[in-house]
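re: that complex we talked abt at group meeting.

here r the seqs, copy pasted straight from the sheet so there may be weird spacing, ignore it
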Amino acid sequence: MEKELTLEDIQNFKGKYPKQLWFLFLVEMWERFCFYGMRGVLTIFMADQILGLSLPDKDANLKYGAIQAFVYAFTFIGGIFADKFLGFKKSLLFGGLVMIAGNIIIAVSPQEFFYLGITLSIIGTGFFKPNISSMVGELYKEGDPRRDAGFGLFYSGINIGALLGGAVCVYLGTSKDYGWSYAFLSAAIVMALGLITFLLTRKSLGPIGNSPLLNLPANKRLTKEIIVYVGALLSIPLIFIMIKNTDYTDYFMYSIGPLAFLYFIYETIKENDAKAQKKLIAAFIFILFSIIFWAFFEQSGGSLALFAQDNLHHNLLSFEINPNIVNNTSNSLFVIIFSPILGLIWLAMARKKIEPNTVIKFGIGFLFLAAAFYLFYYTKFFSDETGKTSLNAFTLAYLVITFGELALSPIGLSIMTKLSPKRLSGMMMGFWFLASAYGQYAAGLLGAGMSSPDENATLVTKLELYTDGYQQLAIYALIAGIVLIAISPLVRKLMQEVK
Ligand code: GLN
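got the structure back, here u go
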């Protein structure tokens, strides 16, 4: 019989990446295909007057924001249940199955079952998304300098899935020959591929992600697990109602953050070990800053999409291209190319002992964010008299913002796994994504603040308004970066030996 892998066996891997990382990479790639595929068609489907939900554009946008916020907010809950009852592996399986069910339900009759299916996608993603990242963290020993590079590679997988999913689902959904059902069906099929990949490779994870309740008798454990599954399914009507009525999203967002914060304080106090408590506080500081980062970054799905649609020439390095395609794909493409490269650079720097620590990486992330928004602002100086400006400058800004993302987002996943005690690692990863939920939410408000209240405003006026907004964001991002770097000695103290 094959010997069961131990944690030691896994963590003592040779080379740059553990082989299990490639498996998790694939599983997450398929999951993100499903998620971004669904997300890519969401607004267009809701606003489709004939075959979709016939919502006015404004409502479709609001609902899009609400669904995004819910999806990421539920990762906090999914993380807690994984820590306390299911373990990451079972959580992932359950989440994946629920996501598949959600997409199949919509595919059966998009107009009829959309909200029910989306509700399932929200619950499913909550159980899936944080926990796969936590498993990546467990492939590494404490202090292993290869961890950030591993998350860099994993992040490329995320973006390959995101890019393919967005392209395939939008193509299928908007094509005359196929239609919305095919878009959602393809998301379901791909998620099934992800789960099959996971089932075929999960043995290689050894004890990683096993149930935290292995010390209980099997029947007791099973009862607890069933309670979680049933509880999750019972929450369907509640989430369903909250999504249907966008007003409830506000109440939900006002309450989930403070509640999560209180729960975090409770667990931090309960931790009882001053060293671990300090690390949790450091993790919390990273989470807070990430809200600001995502609020700015997520302009890509909102104001930058409108800016691309209205104010850009269709010419990139003398090729004719729709600026919306650039807006939707350039970030993922840049991540796929540069994330592994940056990971290798971090590794090489670690070998020479000159790798910046995480606080400085975050600070650098904000400086890139500031530079990118300065470039978005600067596009106005290339505009013609009709208010249209350079797609080249816009794309360059996307390259810069991507470097900001790479200095913060995969590094953020990594630092959550470094700073969290094992018993809270799912919750903390969920907390990290909850910050994204707030970022998304704030991004919508910021974008709305920048757009002209007058539907018939000229392109020149729109350009002025957006670019002025981007200039402001550049300044705030710069301030955030400077503050982070300034407080880095304090945060590093809280982090202790963690880099
Ligand atoms: N694009 C990344 C992903 O899908 C990060 C998302 C986020 O944290 N907002 O995982």
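couple things i noticed - The pocket of glutamine is lined by residues 32, 158, 294, 409, 433, 436 (CB under 6 Å). The chain has a mean pLDDT of 93.
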